[in-house]
Design brief:
single chain, 176 residues, mainly beta, Methylamine Dehydrogenase, Chain H, 4-stranded antiparallel β-sheet, globular
C-alpha cells in the first residue's frame, strides 16, 4: 500500500518515486506512457516510507526519503552511479513522520520540512551535498500533518493538518 509519491522530470524522461507501508522506495521511469521499474536499494528504510523530490528538473534529481516509524531522513540519488540510500539521520520527531518536503535554497543548501502525527513541523537545512543537517525551526500545531510543501525558493511553507491549511514564511537559512 502506498504512503507517498513524487514525480520529477529528468534527462531520462519522467521519474516516479513511491514509498510504501513496508518501507520500500520504488522508482519508475516513464516514457511514452510506459512505466519501467528502476533498481533501488531502499531495503534499509523499514516502516512507512515517504519520498519528496529536491531537484525536480535536473538530469539526476535528488530525492528526500523518510522512515515514518523511526523518524529518520535521508537522500536518494536514483539515476547516478552513487544510487542507493545514503546515510540517514534523526529528524527530531518524537512521533511518526507523516509528510516531508525539500527544496534547494539559492545558497545551494537544501531546506527540509517534515511533519508528524502529533502536529509538529520541523525545518532543517543541510549542505548542498546532503551532509551536515541542522535544525532551524520547530512549530507545534497539535493536529496530524497531512501534507507539506516548500516554495521553490524556500521562502515559505504550506501544510495541511486535520482541521486547517497553513502558510508561513520560513526562517532565512543563511542565518543559521
Amino acid at each position: 500500500m502506498l504512503c507517498d509519491l513524487a514525480l520529477a522530470s529528468s534527462g531520462a524522461g519522467l521519474l516516479l518515486a513511491t514509498g510504501n507501508v513496508e518501507g520500500c522506495i520504488e522508482l519508475w521511469a516513464i516514457r511514452d506512457g510506459v512505466f519501467q521499474q528502476l533498481p533501488a536499494d531502499s531495503s534499509a528504510l523499514g516502516g512507512d516510507a515517504h519520498v519528496a523530490v529536491i531537484d525536480p528538473g535536473l538530469e539526476d534529481p535528488l530525492l528526500l526519503t523518510a522512515n515514518a516509524v523511526d523518524g529518520t531522513l535521508g537522500f536518494l540519488t536514483p539515476l547516478s552511479d552513487r544510487a542507493g540510500v545514503a546515510e540517514r539521520w534523526p529528524a527530531g520527531h518524537t512521533h511518526p513522520i507523516t509528510a516531508i518536503a525539500g527544496v534547494r535554497h539559492r545558497t545551494g543548501d537544501i531546506l527540509i520540512a517534515s511533519g508528524d502525527r502529533h502536529g509538529d513541523v520541523l525545518l532543517c537545512r543541510s549542505r548542498a551535498d546532503g551532509t551536515d543537517p541542522r535544525p532551524i525551526s520547530r512549530l507545534s500545531l497539535g493536529a496530524r500533518i497531512l501534507d507539506i510543501h516548500l516554495a521553490p525558493d524556500g521562502s515559505s511553507m504550506v501544510w495541511s493538518s486535520q482541521g486547517g491549511l497553513y502558510l508561513t514564511l520560513t526562517p532565512d537559512p543563511t542565518r543559521f
